[in-house]
Amino acid sequence: MKENIFDLEDDLLEMLDSLLREPTQYWDKFYIDREKSVSFFVNSPDENLVNYFEKKLFSPGNVLELGCGPGRNAIYLAEKGCIVDAVDLSEESLKWATERAKEKNVNVNFIQKNIFDLDIEEGKYDVVYDSGCFHHIAPHRRMSYINLVKKALKPNGHFAITCFVQGEELGGAEISDQDVYRLRSVNGGLGFTEVKLRTIFEDFKEIEIRKMREIKQPNTVFGVSALRTALFSKIY
């Protein structure tokens, strides 16, 4: 961690990261016990992602997944004929994801990295997909996140996100951005209203914002109503 700020962008961002971000070891420990009761440990894709293909909003192309975890959505995307780069900070989550991909006999390029350290080729991707990464990102990194998505997407490319609903049982901390810094924590994951998502991603064209549909497990798709889904496209 840097002790002094000489650059009001990079140095300040890194200092705030060190105060707020869960370390890599936290996520490795989280994923190492594969038998614990975590709703999204199922090996089924998000119901909204499946719906985008059924509605022909998505078609085979280049996809970047941010925070892929054990790979369930990345694997589904590969099965649909997409070329997938799937990024996660945790080595343990990617070990699991790689095993799952081999079982399904699909090819996914899994990348162990902080998303903000990615060397993104501008305009490479038809889709950027995020299921559960964004709500762990502190407010000071939102503009970095938005710029990453904009750089990654082709003109008219799609950006889809799944995140916590405020105050639901899975998480969704009901705290202000200022409270994040008072508490030095995102309290397990920030919750978002429809209005807040619309405001944060106002530079994109909104296609759909809704709650995820509740899907009783086991099933071929995953869905819990404590999550909110949103689909946008890049504006040029």
Automatic annotation (TrEMBL):
Domain Methyltransferase: 63-157
InterPro entries per record: Methyltransf_25, SAM-dependent_MTases_sf
Keywords: Methyltransferase, S-adenosyl-L-methionine, Transferase
Highest taxon, organism lineage: Bacteria
Pfam families (UniProt xref): Methyltransf_25
Name of protein: Cyclopropane fatty-acyl-phospholipid synthase-like methyltransferase
Organism: Neobacillus ginsengisoli
